[in-house]
Each structure stands twice: as C-alpha cells, then as structure tokens.
Design brief:
Radius of gyration of chain B: 19 Å
Strand content of chain B: under 5%
Oligomer: heterodimer
Strand content of chain A: under 5%
Number of strands of chain A: 2
Strand order of the largest sheet of chain A: 1-2
Largest interface: A-B, 34 and 37 residues
Largest sheet of chain A: 2 strands, antiparallel
Mean pLDDT of chain B: 87
Radius of gyration of chain A: 19 Å
Mean pLDDT of chain A: 88
Number of strands of chain B: 0
C-alpha cells in the first residue's frame, strides 16, 4: 500500500494540487482578518469562540469544493490518460481506490491542520483573552477532518465512476448549497445530508439579541451522537464507493 | 463562419446532461429559501422583496459563479482532451469565432437559468400566499443578473482556455465569489467582476437602488467582457497550443 500511495504522489508531483488548497486557506485567513479587524474588550473575551463559530461556517461553503477539486484532480489523471485498464492489470482496483483516498486525505488533513494553526497564531497575535482552548481545537480538528474525508469519499467515488468531471463537481456544488441552507433548519433535518455536518458538529452557538444587536457566543455540548452517525455514513460511503469502483468495467 | 462554430458547439453539447444541472440548481435555493422565509415571516416583512433575498443571497455569491465555472470548463474540456487543440487550431476558423461561440453558448445557458429563476420565484411567491402584485423590477433584476453572469462566463472561459484542469477554474470561481462578497461589503461591488451578478440581481437589497447606476453597471460589465475577449483572442493567437 505504501508503494501505491507513493505512486499516487509521484503522479501529481507537478500538478500543484496543494495550490488550490493553500489558496482557499489563504482566503479564509483574509476573511478572518477582515471579520476580526475591530476588536473591543468584549469581542477579545469571546475571540476563541468566535473563531470556532466562524470557521465551520466558512468550511461548509469552501471545504466541499476543495474536496471536489482535489478528488477530481486525482482521478481525472487516469481518465485523461485512459490508464484504468492498464492500472487494473498491475494492481487491485480496491487498492487503487484506497491509495487515491489516502492521497486526497493527506491534503484534507493538511488543510484542517493549517486552519487550526491559523486560528492559534491569529488569536495569539490579536490577543484573544485566555490561552487557546486546546480541547475544543482538538475536537474541531477531529470533526472537520472526518467531515472533510466523508465528503472526499463521496466526491472521489463520483470522480472515478464518471469520466465527465462535471457530474462530480456539480453534485458537490448542489450538496454544498443544500448543506448551507440546512444550517437554518432544525438539527434533525441538518443531519440528513453529509454537507450539513459542519453545522451539526459545531462546538459554539450564537445568541444574537435583536433589541441590543449584541452577539454572544457560548460553548455547546459536543454532539457525539452526530459524530457517530457521520462515522457510520463514512464507512458506508467507503464500502459502497470501493465496491462500485471495483465492479465498474473500465 | 461564426454560425458554423456556434453550431459545432451546440452539437458538442447535444446529448450532454449539462442543462440538468442548471435546471436542478435553482430549485434548491427556491425550496429552502421559501421555507426559511415562511419560518421568519415576522422579521421578513417586505413580501416579494424579502422572498427574493432568501432565494438569491447565497446563490449569487457562493454557488452561481462556480456553476458557471463548471459549465465553462466543460465547454473547453473537449479541446483539452485527445490532442484536439491541434485539430481546432489548424481548422480555417478565426480564433475569435471559437471564443465567441463558447461565450454565446455559456451566456445562453445563463439567460435560460435566469428565466427559470424568475418562473420559480413567481410560483413560490404564489404558493407562499403573497397577495401583493409581482414586483415590476423582477425583469430588471433577472436581466442585470444575466449580464453579471455573462461577465463571469467571459472570465471563466479565459481561465478554462489556459488552465487544462477541469476543477481548478471551478475553485477559482468560488474564490472569486467570496471575493465578490467582500467587495460588496466594502462598497466596491460595482467594480469587481464576480460581484456584478449579485449587484445586478440586487441580492441583498432588492427594494433599494442598485449599488451603482445602471449605466455604470453596463459599462463595467462591457469592459470585463471585452477584456475577456481580447485576452482569449491574444492567448489563442500568440501562444502555441499544449495538446494532450
């Protein structure tokens, strides 16, 4: 498997897949700089919570597109080179699926790590009150990574099954739009779609007072039930995606 | 010659399911936006105008630009595959016609989507029980939105011409859409190509005036479309094709 993964990285060594991930993280950083530009004492006191509230919202818009782009770039090489037939004569299709997933997962994991790093550096430089809430940041890292990987699995399956990459990217965009709208719906409805889990697993809630127009953030209990449902969904996606790819005639 | 290249584009798209994406995509914000409107009808008291914001707000910034990006990438994909650029560039066809035929194809899809958006908006308003007459500005919102969409088409086609990857231009379109939101918030919406769609559609303030005058909006849009055309024609004329 290590060899198969190394081959995947060699295939994309000049494709600059990291560039689009870095660009989108950079956009998130710029967004944060803009959102946190005027901080008074009350805002600084809630800085970490504000970060942990804002990033999942940004993720729900941007991360599914990053996942779709990464998956499409990894799988499109084989479609363009008509390489599936050849590849399947030298390695098992299931192993190829797994190697491609691990390769994409490295990028998604790096993106989540970068986000947490950006949050910590940003909060320290801006002078958010208190030390970084490491337990919450760790939970954020775990939840974001698992949602990213689940979406990556979905996108990779579509990108492998359909030569036309429009199908996977359009499905990703429609899912993202649905996920964003579902954030305004009750939690039970939000759980129905993979893309809604950035909202389901949020660690911070917001209370906006319409009269005073003051926003207060508060920590919410960790939604472990939602996390387990997501894990189950990810397993199903992996098994189904792999089976569909293995059975597909190339 | 232009009509022949345009016909060729249409033939390439003949059995493509691309129209399905543009058909399904507007339904989602309409269903969910209408539901959200009905949930918050005590806050959103501007009837048709409030409903319009619920339908268009997220779509204009985050989703329509990447969807146009997908379509433009698709329009250029065939040329990027199987050494087809060699065949295309050696055909006795002016390169401007090649670009224009793709631009008109993409623009037609944007126009049809806007018509579909308008129909869905009216249906959802009636289903919500809005008794007030349909805003007369609706045609203007849709038309100006279509012009903003055509600007994005012109730029995305340029990106898809020189970026051989299908997905990268879509990611750039998303960044552009987010940049458009920031530009709007800073008051520069009328100058940034990716925010012209939301400026034209009055996504965040349908009952008020546009962020800029209509003349300025049309002029800026024409400038970006012209810039796109000039860039694409020069690129195709000067650069050697990379076929593979």
């Amino acid at each position: 498997m290590r060899q198969a993964l190394a081959v995947e990285f060699r295939k994309i060594r000049r494709r600059k897949v990291w560039l689009i991930v870095a660009a989108l993280i950079f956009v998130q950083l710029l967004w944060s700089l803009w959102a946190f530009r005027n901080m008074d004492a009350r805002k600084l006191a809630q800085g970490w919570m504000h970060c942990l509230y804002q990033f999942p919202l940004l993720n729900s818009i941007m991360m599914p597109v990053i996942a779709a782009v990464v998956a499409s770039r990894l799988c499109d090489i084989e479609h363009k080179g008509r390489a599936f037939k050849l590849l399947e004569t030298i390695m098992l299709a299931g192993r190829l699926f797994h190697a491609k997933f691990l390769c994409g997962a490295c990028y998604m994991l790096a993106a989540a790590f970068l986000q947490v790093e950006v949050m910590v550096v940003f909060g320290t430089v801006k002078g958010f009150q208190g030390s970084p809430p490491w337990d919450k940041l760790l939970c954020y890292l775990l939840f974001t990574t698992v949602v990213n990987l689940a979406i990556l699995l979905f996108q990779q399956t579509l990108s492998l099954l359909f030569q036309n990459q429009m199908v996977s990217l359009t499905a990703g965009l429609i899912g993202t739009l649905a996920g964003l709208y579902l954030m305004f719906f009750p939690r039970t409805v939000e759980r129905l779609l993979l893309w809604g889990y950035y909202g389901v697993l949020m660690l911070v809630g917001m209370d906006w007072d319409r009269e005073t127009r003051i926003t207060n953030y508060y920590y919410m209990p960790v939604n472990w039930a939602g996390f387990i449902v997501l894990l189950v969904m990810s397993c199903i996606l992996y098994v189904a995606g792999r089976a569909l790819f293995v059975r597909k005639e190339m | 010659m232009f009509f022949r290249t345009f016909r060729a584009e249409q033939m390439k798209m003949q059995h493509s399911p691309v129209w399905l994406a543009f058909f399904i995509f507007p339904i989602l914000p309409v269903v969910m936006g209408t539901f959200n409107y009905l949930q918050n009808v005590d806050i959103l008291q501007d009837a048709w105008y409030s409903l319009w914001t619920q339908h268009t707000l997220f779509t204009c910034y985050f989703f329509f630009p990447p969807l146009i990006g997908v379509y433009c990438s698709y329009l250029c994909r065939l040329e990027h595959l199987n050494h087809n650029w060699n065949a295309v560039m050696t055909a006795p066809v002016p390169v401007a016609d090649l670009y224009f035929s793709k631009l008109i194809s993409a623009s037609m899809m944007v126009l049809l989507t806007q018509v579909w958006n308008g129909i869905l908006f009216i249906i959802s308003g009636k289903l919500c029980g809005l008794n007030a007459p349909i805003p007369t500005e609706l045609a203007g919102w849709l038309l100006c939105g279509a012009l903003g969409g055509i600007v994005i088409c012109a730029l995305q086609l340029c990106l898809s011409l020189f970026i051989r990857s299908f997905a990268v231009p879509v990611g750039i379109a998303l960044i552009g859409g987010i940049g458009g939101l920031v530009a709007m918030a800073k008051g520069y919406g009328a100058w940034f190509p990716y925010s012209l769609l939301s400026v034209g559609m009055r996504a965040n303030q349908p009952s008020g005036a546009m962020q800029c005058g209509t003349e300025q909006f049309v002029l800026v849009s024409c400038f970006y479309v012209t810039a796109g055309v000039v860039f694409a024609v020069l690129w195709l004329k000067k650069r050697d094709v990379v076929a593979g």
